[in-house]
């Protein structure tokens, strides 16, 4: 980042050196003006002042200046006006005109003018006719340079250097944040306001550039955007800070937002009523920056002391942009450069660290929340699994079986059910006690599981009754499995002097002609048949 800053500064000052060199001395310095109440007498005109040197409330003036013999290769005149219509004459012939010499809503806007001067072999007079929307603009024009057409074109494009290197960064940051808004729900308002700030900076940067006149020659629109967006920038930037800071620090930030918004409203009202409010109130805006931003920085510093990461990331960009904004105001009103340009768009580079760190912080935080959510989901799943599990046998319980079989019936695939019932289990409990009965149930469950495949499911229906789900099995295959389990139970040494047996009932799902109640009834009837026929056997529906 430091290397990039050095390169940018070197190019920037190199551009200034280029712009200060190569002006052709074909225009004299003896400027004079004539107004309707000058009684035909030309008066001295103080050229180059920030405010109009013409006294009184006037809107129209004639200016003249000696034009020395021009060089053929340096015969192109460049100058810029704000809120004025202009006509240019050489030896009585009009060589250029722009705008209407009458009042317009929102004025004539800011515009640069480029014209080719005719060849004159001797000294003559260059005559300008100006109409101004407001008296303080009358006769004020800047960047008055005569040079070659190629040099003038380079001069126009070179002055866009701060904007050319700033605009793509603003667009990129807005797109990054926009992608984040669509993919992440957290901090939505913070991200939306950040996108709005980047958008305003981008539009404002375009309105400041000189190239925009070649793309769309609408000086009134561009001048309005250039001046009005200056007021919106602190409103949106400080509103963004309100999203970052703690709740008890937000009222101070909100008051500054209201202050800036109120000033913008007053300027806009004066502008629409024909008083050039957006320009007149600019001095108030720069003065407000000193006072209001001091309150904002105090709140941000307090938030940083509390450990607010976002406030720490935002402090440097806010300070940089405030300093550049104040510097723009100083340079604008002191006319430090002949062709004024704004430094504030360069502050977008300070915003890159904030945007990158903010997005990174949000991603890290959301990953932590997602990890926590996954842990909670796993805990809930484990809790639900424990609620469905029979701790004594390790089988899923009857409630789990009913939900499970409902899903399988909905799926419509082939399956069979086996219901097992340990014979005379009540006698086991009465004779050996319930602890021995529990051991029998545990051993029985393990024995049955040893005969099952991975895709088969084992449930405890209740007491000494169990159910096996056999996917893709018909009734014959299920009978084979049930009989194998019956035989293994018969030979298993549960007790030294007592043999245990099991009875089984088998039923098959008959698809569209069947129902959950129907297969349960047939399975239970088959088990009842096995018990009635002497137990220790398998019966089929």
Please tell me about this protein's structure.
- The chain has 541 residues and is α+β, with helices and mostly antiparallel strands.
- It is 54% helix and 16% strand.
- It contains 17 helices and 14 strands.
- It has helices at 2-20, 149-158, 161-164, 167-183, 188-208, 212-215, 219-244, 250-272, 277-280, 282-305, 309-334, 348-388, 398-411, 425-432, 434-450, 475-491, 516-532; strands spanning 32-34, 43-44, 60-67, 76-82, 84-90, 93-98, 110-116, 124-132, 141-147, 415-422, 457-462, 465-471, 502-508, 538-540.
- The strands form 3 sheets. A 6-stranded antiparallel beta sheet has the order 2-1-3-8-5-6, with no helix packed on it.
- The longest helix is centred in the last third of the chain and has 41 residues, at 348-388.
- The model is unreliable at 1-25 (pLDDT under 50).
Return the average pLDDT rounded to an integer.
87
Shape: rod-shaped
- Termini separation (Å)? 81 Å
- Spans where pLDDT lies below 50 across 5 or more residues: 1-25
Query: By helix and strand content, what is the structural category?
Result: alpha+beta
Main β-sheet, spatial strand arrangement: 2-1-3-8-5-6
DSSP E strands, number = 14
Total DSSP helices: 17
Sheet with the most strands? 6 strands, antiparallel
Helix content: 40-55%
> How large a portion of the residues is in β-strands, by DSSP E?
15-25%
Radius of gyration: 44 Å
Oligomer: single chain
